[in-house]
Structures are given as C-alpha cells and as structure tokens.
Amino acid sequence: TAGEEETAMSGCSEQSAATTTAIAVSPSSTVPAPPPQQPCRFETLYLGYIRVEKEKGTDVIHAAIEKLENSNQTNWESVTMEIHVSTINLIKTADRTLLAEHRVRFVSFMALGKQEHHLGYIVHGGPRIFYCHVYQSDSSCADMARAIQNACNARYQLLLAKQEEMKRNQKPESTGILSFWKRLKKKSPETERRSLATKG
User: Fold this and answer.
1) Residue 140: which of 32, 25, 17 has the closest Cα?
2) pTM for this one?
3) How far apart are CA 89 and CA 184, in angstroms?
4) pLDDT confidence of residue 162
C-alpha cells in the first residue's frame, strides 16, 4: 500500500513527509535543509530499543514496535525528545536528566508504525550491529519524523559545506601521489644531471 512505501529522503517534500510512513535516511544535496537554530522538542513515550538484524526496512521497524509494545510497560519512559542537527537527545520528563543521546549520522532508517502514533528509527551501534528505538505519542508522530528528516538533511548540508571549504583551502601541489612524484623528480640527481647535459 502507499502507506508502506519506502521513500528516499531526497524525494520527500515537507508536505509529503507528513504522510510518509517510511523514510530511508539517505540525505541528498538537492534537499534544502533548515538552518541549525533551536532544537525541535516533542513530548513522547520512549518504549525502549531492541537489536535488529538489518539497518533498514519498514517490516523491521514494525516488528520492533510490536515487540516493545507488548513488553513490560514499567520500562517505558516519558521523555522530551530534543532533535538537534547532530544529535537526538532524550530527556527524562520526571527529573530532566539525559536518558540517551543518539548521533544523527548513525540513523540509517526510520518509519511510522502501522498506527501513526508509533515511530521507530534504526541506529548503527557498531560493525553490523543495529538497534531500533521506538516511541509512542498520543497523536501522529509524523511531525517528529519530519523533524528528524530535516536534521539529517541539515547535517548533510553542513558536511558538504565543510568539504567545499577544505577544497578551497587546499593547495593543488601540496597533496596527491602525482604532485609528490613531481617534487621528487625535481630533486633527484638524475634529473639534475640530465638538465646540466642538456644545457651543455
């Protein structure tokens, strides 16, 4: 069904993101990102996380949601989700302490549940190690998903800008194997002897 289609982040507009249930987190330079200003905040219920076998897939997230939804509710935690350009912070509602911090760069996939008041995203935890974190809200989690999407795009734009700046500041002759070989040939005795013989 349309609600289960996986949509690349580069193809999601601000309007379509609100109704998209699956977003592959692969930001594109063609997607405009909001400037990094104040973090977005959402009050939500954190159901926890479980290890999963794949880094993406709507079915993977739906299975994780179902498992955690049927888990011990005493482990659920009311939190404020703070979405920054680089991190997703979970702040406990009870005492305002930091419960968890997830790096945006390691988020590989997210999707709404079969019911839109659930949201899950998959985070890389190491080589071939993936964890799915699950949330539940009173209403739709679409705005939360869109905010995470925007954070991914904003971070990608910052990365592109940093790479461009590094290229501008880089001297053409100072890097690369070819330039190193050219400098070496200039200094080699054989090169100097050939130069003298030519002049003679």
Assistant:
1) 17
2) 0.68
3) 51
4) 82
